[in-house]
Design goal:
alpha+beta, Tetrahydropterin Synthase, Chain A, 3-stranded antiparallel β-sheet
Length: 302
């Protein structure tokens, strides 16, 4: 649009130059160039009256440094051609600070290093999910500008994490208090963002790294706890096995006591005769010798 206006002005200047120089053979085209120049300028002005805002963005209007409070939402708008429109992305954005090279928004190691309550350095990888509040876009443009990530998102997040980490021990941050710490810094950063026209959607603690000495201590403690749990299981199993054997022995003893107290000589003789009868009728039995006053002798072909 501005390009059309510039071209039109150039054509007008050329046409006036040709008109004043009557000796130039091209001077007869000065009138035509003037008309074309005016048409191009009119086309530039007309086209600059239309402004398209893409989906997921809003337009902030300013005129000679004065920022208008109302915004242009996505779609086609007819505006004052003198207005300057600055687009702002209102979709969810993320800003990652990581110790891994090439993973975060900044090159190199960009993790957040904080001191815990017990004086140990803890390294935190973090991702911030946020967006611009559409109605606050003019305020952001006027007070912050377009580089709100480096001016607000990054410094506020890093400062609030350091401010809140001092309330926790290193091991607690790494294990039991991680969720509580994340919720605490979320509320703190959310309040700061809100005053500046930003909406904090989610705060993701991706990793918490402890000093090597602390890691070894934690691993040793975990291994010791696992060994203790394993020994407890073994002892319980042995105790159950001992109880099973005691119950089995008690059952055998009770059985023997019942048998010894309930059987008589005649009953034993009767059971013996029954057993001899079953052996005698077996197809494998060949000869039976019955000795007087003694137990029978049975020969088998087996």
């Amino acid at each position: 649009m501005i390009l059309f206006i510039i071209i039109g002005v150039i054509l007008l200047i050329v046409s006036f130059g040709l008109k004043t120089n009557i000796n130039n053979p091209l001077s007869k085209f000065s009138g035509t160039l003037k008309i074309i120049g005016l048409l191009v300028i009119a086309l530039g002005i007309f086209s600059s009256m239309f402004k398209q805002i893409d989906a997921g963005k809003v337009g902030v209007q300013s005129l000679y440094g004065s920022v208008k409070p109302d915004i242009l939402e996505s779609g086609l708008h007819i505006i004052n051609p003198l207005l300057d429109i600055t687009n702002y992305d209102i979709q969810t954005q993320n800003y990652t600070m990581s110790a891994i090279h090439g993973e975060g928004a900044q090159e190199g190691d960009d993790a957040i290093r904080v001191l815990s309550n017990d004086g140990l350095e803890v390294v935190i990888d973090l991702t911030v999910l946020y967006r611009i509040s559409p109605v606050d876009a003019p305020k952001i443009f006027k007070g912050i500008g377009v580089n709100y990530t480096d001016k607000i998102v990054r410094p506020v997040t890093r400062t609030r994490i350091r401010d809140n980490a001092v309330y926790y021990d290193a091991v607690a941050l790494y294990s039991t208090k991680r969720g509580e710490f994340q919720q605490r810094i979320f509320k703190s950063i959310e309040a700061d963002f809100k005053t500046r026209g930003l909406v904090l959607e989610q705060l993701l603690i991706r990793n918490i790294n402890l000093p090597s000495s602390v890691k070894r201590t934690i691993e040793s403690k975990i291994n010791a706890e696992q060994d203790a749990q394993k020994m407890t299981f073994v002892l319980q199993k042995e105790k159950q096995e001992a109880e099973r054997k005691r119950v089995e022995a008690q059952g055998i003893a009770d059985y023997q006591r019942i048998i010894s107290s309930g059987l008589t000589d005649k009953q034993l003789q009767y059971e013996q005769i029954k057993a001899q009868k079953e052996i005698a009728t077996s197809p494998n039995t060949k000869i039976i010798f019955m000795g007087k006053g003694s137990a029978p002798i049975i020969l088998s072909d087996k």
